[in-house]
Each structure stands twice: as structure tokens, then as C-alpha cells.
């Protein structure tokens, strides 16, 4: 490397003030990333204007046209030019940035959109007799002229990014952009259930197809939200959703969270709002996951729409230009509120399993039924395949006779009286108005887990010494990792010691589990340690390990049970929280009402 030549110096730079158009284009880079962000800004303006209905249309993925029409308060004719000026807003006076009650306040959206596209605003203010229109193309403003419009505002944005071809290149396919637009509209529609929304595609050839519609809801906030969630997320979400209504130190949490059995394969149905504003916030998403941690395997994701409200001073929304992220003054309170409110609601839901399961079962019986739905969990629940005559006979031959006392009390028992065990794993029970099919393995696994947790919380899990300690050979690394958590494991009733080299000696196992395969259990614990990594809290890790351990003491499918034993299992399920789903979020039982059964046979 040669030394810098002392004779060539950098020319002294000239500092210039950028012109407004350039400033706005730069600002647009932060606020307007893609058509969906323009749609978001325009809808938020309509909501801030008190609109009751908002109609959104677009063409070509929003790239050639976005139009948002509202019936809000409108903009006074003489203010139209100002609306296009940078940092001009009617929403704050600038004195208190911590007290924000509107979606907008930065006064950046309209000038930014006008700098990177062809923007026209037509508006008729409340009480005004005529409407007016202003146009701005790539930063050039055309004077205000009269126009025709009912009360409200129509903002039209054509040819987004025509002034910045480089950005145009970053846009995705029309389909991908439409998906992003739809997502934004749905999120805002969830935030504002009393407002009507339509989203229409007017691309050439698309001919006015309504992509999404949400009618204005009525009633109290919970009714309205429930109705809106049904429109946006579907009937199944609405039917499987638990209402959430909790408060902690001035923060409130409302909304709906779905039962664990209605879970998704990806985090696609998690909608979080802070003071009415849709946010994607790691803290809140993490709290949601933590709340369901016990009920879902790692590859399943909870579904919920939750609204956190607090004094605007306790949360800063001004940390991100598009305001998608927020910062809480007391993050611990927000997290604790979410975790405890959801856990509480899930516990109260007790053994209620997802209704999806029962309808999918019915669907499986009647494949030709048009509304038969596919069970959306990982493993389709279709315990009953059509049986041949011989198999049916054999099945009946195995039926245990339930005793009289059990039959008499059926009407008071939610899970009914056991009538039979089929395929060595499914308990059929008769309830007051239908029947219940229990997956004995899944149910038992959950019960063992809940028992282990209870012991853990009381005085630690009871251990049982092995008559002959078991020596397990592992790799050196694995042995070290286990020994590093030996104290935690001892608290779980699993005592291990080093046994020279990479071997481990197992002295005690959890008493509840009875006889277990110590080696298989150690390997499961290792898997669990791998999966969890170091990030999880000790408590979460212990619970995950317990849940694994519970599998080892469960009644495996394939075990014949007597009526008494089956009924004992049903009673324990009734008495145990969360017994409606196994540790992996699958249902432990399905209930068919008599009316469902009658429908199957065409009796109604
Ligand atoms: P902000 O929303 O941050 O105030 P904008 O650039 O989005 O900034 O809008 C500037 C101003 O224009 C708003 O403060 C509001 O007074 C007015 N405005 C924008 N859109 C509408 C609308 N749809 N209805 C009524 N007023 C609007
Ligand atoms: Mg705005």
C-alpha cells in the first residue's frame, strides 16, 4: 500500500440546502416503502378525519392507482395547499409529542406521496357547499380548483415512484403488492370495527372485483370486535376465540385469543394493537408466545387479536417513521399483563376443545358435504375409518359393560360415562346430549404433565430411586450439557451423576412416571435443551422439559383399559385445567352432539 499523495487533496465540498422536492422524496423513502404503505397512510388519515366508511380501490397492485374515499370531516378549501406542505398537520401543535391520540401527527404522508407519485386530493369540508381539488405531480403543485364531491375526501395516487425509477424496481409482483395492501386494510379494519371498509381491484380485466368487505359493526366494543373478527379472520376463529379483558397497573388488554387447538402453522394470525394502532412488536409477540408456551408445540403458533391500551404517555409511538414499532416505558408490565391475561383465559376455558375438531370429524364422515372443512391441525383427526363387518363385530366384542351407578350420573358429567374402548386407544363415552371420543394417550400425557407441574409448584417433583442405577453412554458434549443442568433436573425428580468418561449414572426418576426408559428420557431432555437454546427463561425451560418427560409416563395407545380405569381418566380430565388439548396442542377429545349425529343420519 502506498502513502497518500500529498499533492492531490479532496476539493472542499459545497454545502447546499436541498430543495423541497428532494427533501420530500428522501422523506418518502422512509414513510412510503411500497403501495401498501401509501394505503396505510391514506386510510389512517380517513380514520383521523372521523370517517364512518372508507372505500379503497387500486389497479395493478397499487402501482398505477390507489384511491381512498371517505366520508370524514374533509379539508377546508383554503387549507388544501397547506395539507401538502411538509410538517403541516392538524393533529398536534408540537408541544407534547408524548400525548398522541391520532394515527397521524408527523405531517409527512401527503407531501411524501406528492413527491414520488401523481397525487390529487378532492375534498368537501363539513358544512361547505362545494368541493375543491388540488394536484401535485412529482412535487409540482397545481393551484386549487373547484370539483364535485359529497362530504368527505377522495385521495388519488397514480404512478407511485414514477419520479424514483430505482424504487420502482424494488416493487414485487402485483400479486405480492395486493397481498400487502389487503393485509394492511384488514389490520386497520380490525382496529376500527365500527367503520365500514371495502377494498376493490379495478385493474383492467379485474372489472371492479371486491377483494375485501367489512360492514360497520354495532353493539358494545366486544360484540363489534367479535363481529369484525368473524369478517376478517373467519367464522372458525370467531367460534374458537376467548374474550380477553384484563387490567394491570393502568394498562388494559382486550380482544380475542383462540383456543390452542385452533393454532396455525405460522405466525400469520397474530394481530397486536397499541392504543388502537396496529404494531409489529417483538416484545408483544414474545409475550403472546410465552402465554401459549405450555399448550403448543414449537411449530404451532397461537392466533389472537389483542388490544393494549394505556395512557399515551406510557408508550412512545414515534420511534419508527411508519409507527409500526413502539416503545413501552414499563415493558415488564405490558408483557406480564399479556401472559397472565391469556393464561387465565385459557385456564378458564378448561377442557373446552376447538370446535374445529368436531366439525372436521363430521366432515370426515360425510366427505361429500360441501361445507366439510379440512381439520387445520398438523395431524388430521379421523379416528374412524369405515369398518368392515368382521372388524365391527370384533370391536363390539371388546366393549366393556359400564356399571349402573356410572350411567345414572351421566347427565352431570361433562365428559360422560365410558362405554367402550376401541382400537386400544379411543374411549367412547356417552354424555347427556351426545358422545365424546377421547384419545387416551394424548389425554393421559396432559394429565401427567399437569400433575408434574402441580408437584413442582408445591414441594418439588417426587423422585423414586432406581433399584439398580442405570448407566447411559452419551457423547462427551451431551454428557457435559446434561451435567451442567443436573441441579435443575434433580428438582424435576431426575437425579444424574457423572460416571467417568462420557457416561452418566441415573439414580432417580420422577415417581409419577413409574418405570421409564432412562436413556430415552435423557435423550429427550437433550433435544429439549437443543431446541430451547439459552434464550428461554429457566422456568420456561423446565416446563418444556416437564412436558417432554410427561410423555414417558403416559398410557401409550395400545393399552386395554377397564371401564373403571376409563371413567377415572374422564373424571380426572374434567377436574384438570387445560385437559382439552395435549402438550402439543392437539385435542384430547372430540364431542359430537346428538343433533350432529342425527344430522349424519339425515334424521333432521
Ligand atoms: P398527518 O396525518 O401526520 O397530519 P398528512 O400528511 O397525512 O399528515 O396529512 C396532513 C393533514 O391533511 C392532516 O393533518 C389533515 O388535517 C389533512 N388530511 C389528510 N387527509 C385527510 C382526510 N382524508 N380527511 C380530512 N383531512 C385530511
Ligand atoms: Mg397522515
Report on this model:
By secondary structure, the chain is of the alpha+beta class. It has 3 domains: 20-214, 2-Layer Sandwich (Heat Shock Protein 90); 221-348, Ribosomal Protein S5, domain 2 (2-Layer Sandwich), CATH 3.30.230; 350-365 and 398-604, Ribosomal Protein S8, Chain: A, domain 1 (2-Layer Sandwich). Helix content is 36%, strand content 22%. The chain is built from 20 helices and 22 strands. Strands 5-4-3-6-2-1-7-8 form an 8-stranded mixed beta sheet. The longest helix is centred in the last third of the chain and has 19 residues, at 440-458. The model is unreliable at 366-409 (pLDDT under 50). The structure holds adenosine-5'-diphosphate (ADP) and magnesium ion (MG).
Short description:
With 604 residues, this protein is of the alpha+beta class. The protein has 3 domains: 20-214, 2-Layer Sandwich (Heat Shock Protein 90), CATH 3.30.565.10; 221-348, Ribosomal Protein S5, domain 2 (2-Layer Sandwich); 350-365 and 398-604, Ribosomal Protein S8, Chain: A, domain 1, CATH 3.30.1370.100.
Amino acid at each position: 500500500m502506498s502513502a497518500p499523495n500529498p499533492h492531490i487533496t479532496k476539493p472542499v465540498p459545497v454545502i447546499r440546502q436541498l430543495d423541497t422536492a428532494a427533501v420530500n422524496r428522501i422523506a418518502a423513502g422512509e414513510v412510503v416503502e411500497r403501495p401498501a404503505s401509501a394505503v396505510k397512510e391514506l386510510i389512517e388519515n380517513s380514520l383521523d378525519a372521523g370517517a364512518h366508511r372508507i372505500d379503497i380501490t387500486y389497479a395493478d397492485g397499487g402501482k398505477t392507482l390507489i384511491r381512498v374515499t371517505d366520508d370524514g370531516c374533509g379539508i377546508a378549501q383554503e387549507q388544501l395547499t397547506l395539507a401538502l406542505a411538509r410538517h403541516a398537520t392538524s393533529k398536534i401543535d408540537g408541544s407534547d409529542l408524548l400525548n398522541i391520540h391520532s394515527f397521524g401527527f408527523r405531517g409527512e404522508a401527503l407531501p411524501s406521496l406528492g413527491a414520488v407519485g401523481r397525487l390529487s386530493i378532492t375534498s368537501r369540508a363539513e358544512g361547505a357547499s362545494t368541493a375543491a381539488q388540488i394536484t401535485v405531480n412529482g412535487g409540482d403543485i397545481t393551484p386549487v380548483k373547484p370539483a364535485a364531491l359529497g362530504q368527505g375526501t377522495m385521495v388519488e395516487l397514480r404512478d407511485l415512484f414514477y419520479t424514483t425509477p430505482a424504487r420502482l424496481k424494488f416493487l414485487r409482483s402485483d400479486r405480492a403488492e395486493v397481498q400487502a395492501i389487503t393485509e394492511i386494510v384488514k389490520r386497520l379494519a380490525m382496529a376500527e370495527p365500527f367503520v365500514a371498509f371495502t377494498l376493490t381491484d379495478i385493474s383492467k380485466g379485474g372489472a371492479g372485483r371486491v377483494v375485501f368487505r367489512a360492514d360497520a359493526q354495532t353493539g358494545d366494543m366486544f360484540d363489534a370486535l367479535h363481529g369484525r373478527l368473524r369478517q376478517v379472520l373467519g367464522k372458525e376463529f370467531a367460534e374458537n376465540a376467548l374474550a380477553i379483558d384484563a387490567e394491570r397497573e393502568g394498562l388494559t388488554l382486550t380482544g380475542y385469543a383462540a383456543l390452542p387447538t385452533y393454532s396455525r402453522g405460522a405466525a400469520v394470525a397474530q394481530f397486536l394493537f397499541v392504543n388502537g394502532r396496529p404494531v409489529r412488536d417483538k416484545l408483544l409477540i414474545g409475550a403472546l408466545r410465552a402465554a401459549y408456551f405450555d399448550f403448543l408445540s414449537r411449530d404451532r403458533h397461537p392466533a389472537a387479536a389483542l388490544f393494549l391500551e394505556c395512557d399515551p404517555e406510557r408508550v412512545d409511538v414515534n420511534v419508527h417513521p411508519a409507527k409500526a414499532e413502539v416503545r413501552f416505558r414499563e415493558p415488564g408490565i405490558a408483557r406480564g399483563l399479556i401472559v397472565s391475561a391469556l393464561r387465565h383465559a385459557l385456564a378458564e376455558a378448561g377442557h373446552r376443545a376447538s370446535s374445529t375438531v368436531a366439525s372436521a370429524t363430521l366432515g370426515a364422515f360425510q366427505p361429500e358435504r360441501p361445507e366439510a372443512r379440512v381439520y387445520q391441525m398438523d395431524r388430521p383427526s379421523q379416528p374412524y375409518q369405515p369398518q368392515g363387518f368382521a372388524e365391527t363385530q370384533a370391536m363390539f366384542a371388546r366393549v366393556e359393560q359400564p356399571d349402573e351407578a356410572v350411567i345414572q350420573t351421566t347427565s352431570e358429567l361433562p365428559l360422560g360415562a365410558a362405554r367402550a374402548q376401541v382400537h386400544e386407544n379411543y374411549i367412547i363415552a356417552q354424555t347427556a346430549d351426545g358422545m365424546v371420543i377421547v384419545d387416551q394417550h394424548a389425554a393421559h400425557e396432559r394429565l401427567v404433565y399437569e400433575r408434574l407441574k402441580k408437584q413442582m409448584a408445591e414441594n418439588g417433583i417426587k423422585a423414586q430411586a432406581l433399584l439398580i442405577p442405570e448407566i447411559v453412554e452419551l457423547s462427551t458434549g451431551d454428557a457435559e450439557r446434561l451435567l451442567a443442568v443436573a441441579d435443575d433436573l434433580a428438582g424435576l425428580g431426575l437425579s444424574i451423576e457423572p460416571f467417568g468418561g462420557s457416561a452418566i449414572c441415573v439414580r432417580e426418576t420422577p415417581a409419577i412416571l413409574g418405570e421409564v426408559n432412562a436413556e430415552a428420557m435423557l435423550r429427550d431432555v437433550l433435544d429439549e435443551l437443543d431446541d430451547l437454546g439459552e434464550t428461554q427463561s429457566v422456568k420456561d425451560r423446565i416446563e418444556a422439559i416437564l412436558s417432554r418427560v410427561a410423555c414417558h409416563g403416559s398410557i401409550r395407545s395400545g393399552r386395554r383399559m377397564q371401564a373403571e380405569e376409563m371413567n377415572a381418566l374422564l373424571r380426572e380430565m374434567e377436574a384438570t385445567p387445560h385437559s382439552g388439548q395435549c402438550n402439543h396442542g392437539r385435542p384430547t377429545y372430540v364431542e359430537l352432539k346428538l343433533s350432529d349425529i342425527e344430522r349424519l343420519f339425515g334424521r333432521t
